[in-house]
Structures are given as structure tokens and as C-alpha cells.
Please model this.
Amino acid sequence: MQENGNKADDVFNEEFLPHGDALLTFAYHLTYDEAQAEDLVQETFMKAWRFIDSYQRGTNAKAWLFKILKNAFINDYRKKAKRPHSVDYEDFLAYHDSEDSSYKDLDTNNEVFQGMMGDEVTKALNDLPVNFKTVILLCDIEGFTYEEMSAIIGIRIGTIRSRLHRARNMLKDALQGYAANLGYTEKEH
Amino acid sequence: MGIRIPGRHNTNCRCTDERVEMALDGALSRKEQERFLQEVKLCAYCSEKYEREKSFKQFLCNKVSRKALSPSFINSLKEKIGKQPGHGRFIN
Model:
């Protein structure tokens, strides 16, 4: 029994804890609140510990932990969170589905974008509806594959791809808005 | 080899917006990726789009704020886990 305990400790220390910072970053962008983000990460690790016997050593701990965190967020935090201006997700999706889904072009090498503070970019990201923000965080910030994202979120790969495409366009729109206030004008093609 | 016209696809170009995203997200096989990178060089439109999207991904990676767990959080977490039944005392 003690030996099992030690093995579990090893898994926790060697395979779970190294993902703590990434989990906290994800949790922070989901909640946009540092205290809630820490609570969410703690809950994630507690659940991971409780179900550590169902984790197979050497498999994808990071994706497993992200899935636990995302489910904890959906089950608990979204219900508890007071969102005065919450937008119905399906309405939002329908609205964006009706828009041109072609590429939005943005030259982020432009000095206006390069001069942007991380806070501005973070705010633009955090203003996206949670399902869109999630795919950007998982893909562009954490580098998960489409297959891993599909397993974490529980939706088909085709949906992941289209949601990611829309999310990037929405974020570009938002960033362009910020940049326009700073004097950026879109290049003609 | 096709004709390079800025702002438009090369007449022989088989790239799609979808493939550009898949290439950047690492969703193409090695062979597909190699073929894509060869093809993209031949089309000014795709080449520019690919570079823009690559920069955008890099931009997000660089600018989006990241967080780190504090040592006190980790210690407190280990203490709480040590009190959980099932796996005995948690060993640091």
C-alpha cells in the first residue's frame, strides 16, 4: 500500500506538477480572476490525485489535466460566476456563422502591434466568448494538437478547426480595433 | 511553375486557407507539410498569408500573459493532498 502511495507521489511530482504553470495560465484566462484561477487549479490537482489510479504513467498527463480543469470550470465556476453581460453562446455562434468566414488579414509585424502591451492582447483574448477563447489558448498558447483538443473539449476535430478559424478572426478584429485607436490602418491587398 | 501575382493565388496553386492553418497548427503529416512548404513558395498570395498567420501565432505566444504557481501554493497543495485518503502520506 505504501509502495502504491510512493508511486502515486512520483507520478504526481514528475508528471502532473510540471504542468502547473500551464494549468494556471489556462485557468486565469478562463476566469480572468487570479484567486478563482488558483482555486480551479487546486481543484484540478485534487481530482487528478483522487483518480490517479486511472491515469496510465507516461501517457498524456497534460491533456488529461487540462480536460479535468476544463470540466471543473464548466461544472462549477461558470455556474457560480456572476457574468453581468454574458452572451448566449449559440446566439453568438449563429451571428458569427452568418459573417464572412474568409481570412482576416492582420500584419502583427507592424510596429503598432509590436508595441502593444501584453495586457491589451490578454484583454482582447479574454473578451472572446469562452468556447472561442478556449481553442486559441489550447492551440496557439499551449500547442495542443487538434486530436488532443478534441479529447479535452469533447467536440469533433472538424468543429475544432472551424471554431479555431472563427476565434482567430474574432481576435484579429478585436486587436485591429485596439490598433486603430493607436493609429494603425489596414494595408490594402 | 505558375505565374506570381501579388494579392491573388498562383494559377496552379492548390493551397487553401484551411491547409495554411493546418500547416501552422502541425496538423499535416511530414510529407504533406513538405509538399505544402514547396507549393507555398510558388504562390505569392499563399506565401504572404502563411507568413502573416505564422507571425500572428507567434505574436499571441509572445504577448498573452502567462502565470506561474507560487512555491507556497505548491506546498499548500501537497499538504492538502497528504490529508486525502487512499494513497497514504504524500511524500515530497
